[in-house]
Amino acid sequence: MNLTGIELRVIEMPLVAPFRTSFGVETVREAIIVRAVTPDAEGWGECVSMHAPLYSSEYVESSMDVLRRHLIPALAGAGSLDGSKVATVLEPFKGHRMSKAALEMAVLDAELRAAGIPLSRELGAVRAEVDCGVSVGIMDSIPELLDAVDGYLAEGYQRIKLKIEPGWDIEPVRAVRERFGDILLQVDANTAYRRGDARLLAGLDDFDLLLIEQPLDEEDVLGHAQLAEVVKTPICLDESIVSARAAADAIALGACSIVNIKPGRVGGYLEARRIHDVCRANDIPVWCGGMLETGIGRAANLALAALPGFTLPGDTSGSNRYYAQDITDPFTVENGVLPVPTGPGIGVTPHTDALDAVTTRTEWITF
Ligand code: OSB
Ligand code: MG
Fold first, then answer.
1. Which among 9, 134, 224, 329 counts the fewest CB atoms within 10 Å?
2. Which parts of the chain fold into alpha helices (H)?
3. What number does the ligand 1 atom closest to the CA of 293 have?
4. Residue 291 in contact with ligand 1 by CB distance below 6 A
């Protein structure tokens, strides 16, 4: 497959409500939409880096820079391409996994659309719909949190994830458990704790949580293994799992018994599938994380979440949980599930008017 060129668009999408985590508050999702143009088809990708390097080291401007200056020129010089070749061509460049993932996704989507193959089939999906959970941000008060959780449960979400940080952990978890009883409940700390917080975190054991996600630093894999000796609640890793090798190592070390898979964080959907395979071979359940994606990333995440090892509800929520107006047809949760797209490639295409309305700038790079 020969590419004609690649378009990069920076978009800004207002969130329906501020989303607060231990690393900051999002009110507008800034992201990059990638369009890979070939004579036969156009492919779409979404780069999930955020406005500032607070979740990971990447951020929108660093992604734009590395894409235009290094990654896209390398692809342009690589001759005929397909999705499976992208990671190899980009391998000499260290890091920048979210940027690499977005390019791979766009090229893979173009290839699959030209061939008429859905991404879900290409990845090995076994389900037509995906169980949905929702990630609930840190709130100003517990009544406000209970209202938010109440609303999501009424919408049918099958699992609630609470963002926690020191000072917003035991009490909100206790309040949600007392008010809503036997729901599937878990927490995500986004690295907000230290090794010395093991006793505090063990205090969460009273609440029958499915898991504690990424309590310690991204690089503190050993710390998570030590924590797992003290805390009974299963430890799940997000930030630390940057590759299939990192997953294999974390599992071998006993640092996690569950893994959150985010394609952007690991360099793409193909590496995400390898992580799924490593985890499945080790009997480690996985679930699909989210990065406040538009309908483009959401469509692809649903394809991934339909693989057999994704046995826990993910952060694949309905479009209306994030955006009043998405750039694709919205995904709507019904009976706690979202449908896996069935069309070729990622199965959705952005609406030109909606995409133009949120685009703040566009760059075109000819091959
Ligand atoms: O840690 O899972 C996370 C959002 C942005 C960055 C990191 C995370 C999140 C979420 C929300 O928890 C997931 C979603 O609903 O897309
Ligand atoms: Mg997380």
1. 329
2. 60-66, 72-76, 83-90, 97-115, 119-123, 142-155, 170-180, 198-202, 221-230, 244-253, 263-266, 269-281, 295-305, 352-358
3. 16
4. yes
- Domain positions in the chain are 5-116+351-366, 121-339
Decide: helix, strand or coil at residue 287: strand
Q: Whose CA is nearest to atom 5 of ligand 1?
A: 291
- CATH superfamily membership of 5-116+351-366: Enolase-like, N-terminal domain (3.30.390.10)
| Ligand 1 within 6 A of CB of 317 | yes
Q: Which ligand has the shortest distance to the CA of 55? A: 1
Question: Could you tell me if 339 and 129 are in contact, meaning their C-beta atoms sit under 8 angstroms apart?
Answer: yes
Taking CA atoms only, the protein residue closest to ligand 1 atom 9 is 291
Q: What crossing angle do the helices spanning 269-281 and 295-305 adopt, rounded to 10°? A: 30
**Ligand 1 binding pocket mutation candidate from 54, 191, 292 (most atoms within 8 A of CB):** 292
Whole-number Å distance, alpha carbon 191 to ligand 2 midpoint, is 9
pLDDT in tens, the chain (367 residues): 999 999 999 999 999 999 999 999 999 999 999 999 999 999 999 999 999 999 999 999 999 999 999 999 999 999 999 999 999 999 999 999 999 999 999 999 999 999 999 999 999 999 999 999 999 999 999 999 999 999 999 999 999 999 999 999 999 999 999 999 999 999 999 999 999 999 999 999 999 999 999 999 999 999 999 999 999 999 999 999 999 999 999 999 999 999 999 999 999 999 999 999 999 999 999 999 999 999 999 999 999 999 999 999 999 999 999 999 999 999 999 999 999 999 999 999 999 999 999 999 999 999 9
Q: Is 186 in the pocket of ligand 1 (CB under 6 A)?
A: no
- Write out the catalytic residue numbers: 163, 262
Q: Which CATH code, of 3.40.50.850, 3.20.20.120, 3.40.50.10050, 3.30.365.10, is assigned to 121-339?
A: 3.20.20.120
Q: How far is CA 204 from CA 19, 197, 208, 234, in A?
A: 23, 12, 8, 11
